[in-house]
Amino acid sequence: MVCFRVAVLPLLVTAGGSTAFSATIWGDGGQDSSWSDALNWSSGVPDNTQNGAPAIGTQPTGNLVGLDTGVELNEIYSLAFNATLSNSVEILPAGIEQLVIDTSVTNSSTKSMKFSLPVSTSSTDSATVNYITGGGLIFNNALTLGTHSINVSGIGGIVLGTLAPTTIGVGSTTLYGGFSGSGTVNYNTTDLQFDFDFDPTGLTRSSWDFFGSISGSVDSVSFVGNNLNGSLTEMTAGSWSGIVDGRTWTYTESTGVLLLVPEPSSAAFLITGALFASAWRRRK
Questions:
Q1: pTM
Q2: Phi, psi (5° rounding) for residue 131?
Q3: Are the CB atoms for 209 and 178 separated by under 8 Å?
Q4: Distance (Å) of CA 158 to CA 24, 115, 179, 203, 267
Q5: Which terminal Cβ of the chain has fewer Cβ within 10 Å, N or C?
Q6: For residues 77 and 103, is the Cβ–Cβ distance under 8 A?
């Protein structure tokens, strides 16, 4: 028995009692498939300054929704694709537009939904963003997580982009972005990037597990940003390694684990310590 989730738009209330975001549903009543055409929405064009909660309810003409605000960063609280949709929907930019989604993407339909514009998570909202995939969520363009965890659920899973990189933020050994949950993620030959926003100098050994259930392969693995910058080399199928900023790093596609290999002196110290502890226990 297969059950499909119906999208329910939550009502978020601020401390003062006023509504913190506005829900509006795509009815496809405009002249074309433009996001900025108020006639396409039940309650006007979604607010793009963190407060909008749009839902695509009626199948758009041409199966397309064009984000045409002329603003680069369009931040919404959540985005939903309703169970009423009979086909896939593609969201694409008119020009410079990017979509920032704060808390959730919910696909309640059996069809896959495609993002052909850059998508990122907010830098200020929930540490966990929920992606309920339904028939699937496809990111053809860049996907930037920051240090947010994307909780993936649903049978369709997530397909990462081939036209632009997937970038995951690393804030520390315990604070970093990635994918979790029961849903699957497919690399789909994306360019995988790690953006360290702290200086890892002095770390002797650390590992970061970025994926829950992962399949497919990546096209490249690299570090971007101010603290680490460089690329790894695929030594064998699915196994990447390289020296960046004087330290050896490895990444394994099948596990989604990035590892900072300890320097020889540090490794020797750890081994010596372990041997000393073992000898001390035997003497006791």
A1: 0.85
A2: -115, 105
A3: yes
A4: 25, 11, 10, 33, 38
A5: N
A6: yes
